[in-house]
Specification:
Layout lengths: L5 H4 L3 H23 L3 H21 L3 H32 L15 H15 L5 H16 L1 H31 L16 H19 L2 H11 L1
Helix pairs in contact: 2-3, 2-7, 3-4, 3-7, 4-5, 4-6, 4-8, 4-9, 5-7, 5-8, 6-7, 6-8
Length: about 230
């Protein structure tokens, strides 16, 4: 983008290859996340998919695409580390590692799953959280770029958002609404202490703040992308 210049690369096989690989990885990563039953591996496949969001935005080779790419770099970093922190707390406090073992856990870890819910909603791209902002800019950039690859990229992003809802809600909804299984070995309430909950709260607040007040960040990123 900066070394060779977008004018030199746009419309060439280099751009086509970068777009094709990014779009394939977006859908493949989400599909593997849906299939994965180990919690941290599911989030890891999700990260692979979301990293390709950023690559696709850069591969559009427009300032708007670069803004979308960089904004997703920031927003995804926040919402994904929040999800990994929460799942880490679940694994440390309960020893549970599988998606099937999440059912009813919100009754024992209400604060952890409150923050997990914020991260999951942000990752799905639902307003007013930061995930909506970055995905909005990526889709707008793809539509503005025009051409077959850009429209295919838009379709991949929308399909990925749907698959993201599937693999996050299949973890979250059982934890929130299904009855608690027999966890006789667990204490009545096992949320982590303040040293873990305070970082959860700060990152969740950042996800909300960037969702409702993203202009300062966008101005910085537009200056970088020009």
């Amino acid at each position: 983008y900066y070394i060779f210049g977008t004018e030199f690369l746009r419309g060439t096989w280099v751009q086509d290859t970068a777009m094709a690989l990014a779009m394939f990885t977006i859908v493949y990563g989400c599909s593997r996340a849906v299939k994965e039953r180990q919690i941290k591996r599911r989030l890891a496949w999700s990260t692979i998919s979301n990293l390709s969001y950023m690559l696709m935005g850069a591969a559009l080779m427009t300032p708007a695409g670069m803004v979308g790419s960089l904004s997703h770099l920031v927003c995804h970093g926040l919402m994904k580390i929040l999800l990994f922190f929460c799942i880490g707390a679940v694994m440390v406090k309960t020893g549970r590692t599988q998606v099937s073992q999440m059912r009813g856990l919100a009754r024992r870890m209400p604060l952890t799953f409150a923050f997990f819910t914020i991260g999951a909603i942000a990752l799905m791209g639902i307003p007013p959280l930061c995930g909506f902002i970055s995905k909005f800019h990526l889709i707008n950039a793809a539509i503005a770029a025009g051409g077959t690859w850009a429209w295919l990229g838009t379709a991949c992003l929308l399909l990925s958002s749907l698959l993201t809802a599937v693999y996050t809600l299949s973890m979250l909804l059982p934890a929130l609404f299904l009855p608690l299984e027999d966890y006789a070995d667990m204490p009545g309430r096992c949320d982590p202490g303040l040293r873990m909950l305070v970082p959860f709260a700060l990152i969740a607040a950042a996800c909300l703040l960037l969702g409702v007040y993203s202009q300062p960040l966008m101005q910085i990123l537009r200056a970088i992308a020009i």
